[in-house]
Amino acid sequence: AVLAPIIGGFIIESNQGDVVVHENLAKIMFLTLAAISILSAIILVFINLPAIEDESEDSGAKSGRTAWSYPHLILGFIAIGVYMGLEVGGGNYFLNYVEYNVDGKTMEFAKRILGFYPLGFFIGRLIGAGILRRSEASKVLLVNASIGVLLITAFFITRGTAFSIWPLISQGLFLSIMWSVLFDLSMKDIPASTAKLGSGIVCTGVVFTGVWMIIMGAVVDSTGTVLADGAIDPATANYGIAYTFFYGFYAYIIFFALKGAKIRRA
């Protein structure tokens, strides 16, 4: 993710306002991605993964419960969907916000700075691996989400200034552990036989990403000037307003850390 904008800069360039695509480099990139995907599939075929079993299956006992009957798992499914709004939304509006809403900053500057966002994820996951060995997952989630609220508040206080860029970028460091922690808390106390479906339900929460981007994009468009052809003039839109959604996202993550992950039904 850190290297992608750099590599993309060689394939897609801006030349005096016109977008130039180097088609041969683009073909090489997609062929490389295809080769990696095929190689990964071949490796997976030959990996001897263990079968997922539990004692209830071996003894023939039936719990009578499906994955959908565990409240904390369903709440975790929603939490993953909310988290994706934070992860993807953080970078989705960043470039236009910097170019059109921050005085004195250009798109080229924004592209260079955006690389620090996924770098924060990389560093955060390394540090988080050590922290989670010694600390309760729900508490780590609560602290990181609370820091996220402070960062987004700092952004709105300084919105439009060069400083406001850094609270947005810094979120990557504290969002980094959320996927793994949310998944772990959602699957806690789920028997292995039920986990086969349960893990699929939780991971499907990523579909929320598209929903959030449509809604957030519509709010951003509502602040811009409509041109004669029906399009929105990007220079007039308020891209920072998209980040108001982050308060709702963080609020749900905090709820899940405090209460949602602990809800059980006998």
Order of helices and strands: HEEHHHHHHHHHHHH
Give me the count of strands.
2
The helix tally amounts to: 13
Strand arrangement across the biggest beta sheet: 1-2
Main sheet overview = 2 strands, antiparallel
Characterize the structure shown.
The model has no long low-confidence stretch (mean pLDDT 89). Strand 1 (12-15) and strand 2 (18-21) form a beta hairpin. It is globular and about 65 Å long. The longest helix is centred in the N-terminal third of the chain and has 24 residues, at 23-46. The protein has helices at 3-11, 23-46, 55-59, 71-92, 94-101, 107-114, 116-134, 137-157, 165-175, 178-187, 192-203, 208-221, 245-258, and strands spanning 12-15, 18-21. The protein contains 13 helices and two strands. The chain is mainly α and 266 residues long. Helix 4 (71-92) packs antiparallel against helix 13. A two-stranded antiparallel sheet has the order 1-2. The relative contact order is 0.17. The two termini are 42 Å apart. 67% of the residues lie in helices and 3% in strands.
Topology (SSEs and partners):
Elements: H1 3-11, E1 12-15, E2 18-21, H2 23-46, H3 55-59, H4 71-92, H5 94-101, H6 107-114, H7 116-134, H8 137-157, H9 165-175, H10 178-187, H11 192-203, H12 208-221, H13 245-258
